User: Which sequence fits this backbone?
């Protein structure tokens, strides 16, 4: 690996021991016992210089030709609380006016490229209309997830009632920047069986934990181990874009990880943890000791009982290779999807323009009934039926029948036999925590790791986050819940990293997830578990609606299709600590929730 592991003098065992002794004197992980070198730094700097995804921040001084300057509007063109996307000739920027002050930054969300002008401006930040990420308008810093990158900001001044923006051309082009990160200062042999921070997993919780440590000035060794063969990638896209490669889906390149001294060990499966000796044992027989451990192993497919499990062409969608195989084998063939989870339904939608037939088997009356309610589930089910998807609801698989080992038929418990050349099982998941059974780390009856508000487990120095945990959720009076959202995993990773460094932070976010099918996106914010009523505004038949999920007299979650940015607006209201009453959304007038601040 690169970074600190490529330095010329490998450390001897006695030096490692001295590092261990030194850390025993420090409560928690600080960067070699010192304050973060970035604690008082503003990542953008006064001029708002930006940087590429895989590069260090731009130097403080540039040649004039590196910049573009343009008059973009009259000072009275924007009212307070308004945003406008403006053209600078070399690129576009987002101009914002709040409290009489102008600011400017990149106009696209670095997560999926959403136009931020259509988002929500509130209290010094802009919330993305698609997936809820938040950016500080003064610094461009990412304040809430999903995504990894912040935004470059640009100079704004007013001359003779004209608003003028001066921007770095490269920042306009990239539309994103990485926060400054520390490097590993310890000289360590890469084969040494010790890491100050050991991370198990390579999903968003794991990656954000590692990056946050570096952003906060942590200068000791970080090792991230994963069962996967690839660097971290955008797993939610697997079920939506079956033909994408790992390279196309990557969240960070190997060069980026090496440049920031985050060591990644692929195809490295943890099989046991000993919290007394602070060590992890791997399937290959190797062992690594840690000072702090972060467990973010995610979930695995829920086991199903049926005959014929040895038949080929039956998939659990886990990797880019799985997705590619499903797309290839379904081409002009018969595809069967078992389960109406979001993953299963997204795969069904993605296969309709490839497969000869697509059949979906579900145990409920309609898809998404538990998560979105029966009315919304029926409306989405109709969308699938219009697109030639056949449903077999209130049913389960009895047997997979193959010919020469290849799948040919799926037999249902009702007796129905479906022709099948490829089958995808999307019937839910369970936490990937089987290797922890003898560890002493506390888990609940379902196998979820229990953590406190700073993502700490009952074992000293052991933290956990993402799909594997139940954690105290403030909006539900700190009831311990499991929220297996991509966005929430990011939050867990950051909170865990700060906690490791003795900078306790609590979870202050509104859960947010999305699902895309047939070019239409469902957005959802809040925590609707146990909702007792659904208030629908809009037109379900036209799939232009907003659904408010209530418990007693309070709105606890919202879902929408073709109604942006209302989900981000509700997330903003809930995130501010305010409550939305059921009576407020029953009237049919929700104009007070629809943002009017963009032009």
Assistant:
């Amino acid at each position: 690996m690169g970074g600190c592991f490529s330095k010329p003098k490998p450390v001897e065992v006695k030096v490692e021991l001295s590092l261990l002794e030194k850390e025993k004197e420090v409560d928690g992980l600080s960067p070699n016992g010192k304050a973060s070198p970035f604690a008082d730094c503003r990542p953008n700097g006064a001029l708002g210089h930006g940087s590429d995804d895989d590069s260090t921040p731009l130097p403080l001084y540039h040649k004039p030709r590196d910049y573009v300057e343009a008059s973009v509007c009259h000072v009275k063109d924007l009212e307070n609380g308004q945003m406008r996307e403006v053209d600078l000739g070399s690129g576009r920027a987002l101009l914002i006016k709040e409290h009489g002050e102008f600011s400017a930054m990149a106009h696209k969300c670095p997560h999926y490229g959403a136009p931020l002008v259509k988002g929500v401006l509130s209290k010094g930040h802009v919330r993305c209309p698609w997936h809820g990420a938040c950016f500080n308008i003064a610094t461009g810093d990412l304040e809430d997830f999903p995504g990894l990158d912040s935004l470059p900001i640009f100079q704004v001044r007013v001359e003779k009632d004209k608003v003028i923006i001066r921007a770095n051309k490269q920042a306009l082009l990239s539309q994103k920047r990485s926060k400054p990160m520390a490097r590993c200062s310890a000289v360590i042999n890469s084969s040494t069986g010790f890491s100050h921070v050991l991370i198990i997993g390579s999903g968003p919780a794991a990656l954000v934990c590692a990056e946050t440590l570096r952003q906060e000035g942590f200068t000791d060794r970080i090792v991230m181990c994963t069962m996967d063969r690839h660097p971290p990638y955008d797993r939610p896209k697997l079920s939506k874009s079956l033909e994408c490669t790992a390279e196309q889906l990557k969240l960070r390149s190997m060069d980026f990880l090496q440049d920031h001294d985050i060591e990644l060990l692929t195809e490295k499966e943890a099989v046991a943890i000993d919290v007394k000796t602070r060590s992890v044992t791997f399937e290959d027989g190797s062992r690594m000791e840690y000072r702090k451990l972060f467990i973010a192993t995610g979930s695995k497919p829920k086991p199903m009982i049926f005959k014929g499990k040895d038949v080929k062409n039956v998939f659990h969608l886990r990797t880019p290779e799985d997705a590619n195989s499903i797309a290839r084998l379904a081409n002009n063939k018969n595809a069967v999807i078992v389960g109406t989870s979001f993953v299963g339904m997204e795969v069904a939608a993605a296969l309709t323009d490839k497969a000869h037939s697509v059949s979906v088997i579900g145990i409920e009356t309609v898809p998404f009934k538990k998560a979105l309610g029966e009315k919304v589930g029926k409306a989405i089910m109709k969308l699938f039926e219009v697109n030639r998807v056949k449903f077999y609801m209130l049913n389960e698989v009895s047997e997979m029948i193959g010919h020469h080992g290849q799948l040919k038929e799926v037999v249902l418990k009702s007796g129905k036999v479906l022709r099948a050349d490829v089958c995808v099982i999307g019937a839910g998941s369970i936490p990937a925590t089987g290797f922890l059974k003898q560890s002493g780390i506390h888990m609940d009856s379902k196998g979820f790791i229990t953590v406190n508000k700073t993502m700490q487990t009952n074992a000293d120095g052991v933290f956990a986050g993402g799909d594997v945990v139940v954690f105290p959720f403030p909006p539900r009076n700190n009831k311990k819940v499991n929220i297996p959202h991509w966005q929430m995993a990011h939050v867990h990773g950051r909170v865990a990293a700060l906690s490791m460094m003795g900078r306790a932070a609590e979870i202050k976010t509104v859960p947010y997830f999305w699902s895309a099918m047939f070019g239409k996106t469902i957005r959802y914010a809040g925590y609707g578990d146990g909702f007792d009523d659904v208030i629908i505004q809009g037109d379900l038949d036209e799939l232009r609606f907003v659904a408010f999920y209530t418990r007693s007299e309070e709105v606890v979650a919202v879902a929408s299709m073709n109604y942006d940015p209302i989900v981000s607006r509700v997330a903003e209201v809930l995130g501010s600590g305010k409550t939305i009453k059921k009576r407020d959304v029953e009237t049919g007038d929700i104009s007070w929730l629809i943002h009017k601040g963009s032009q």
User: Anything to note?
Assistant: Residues 1-61, 595-599 have pLDDT under 50 and may be disordered. The two ends are 48 Å apart (CA to CA).
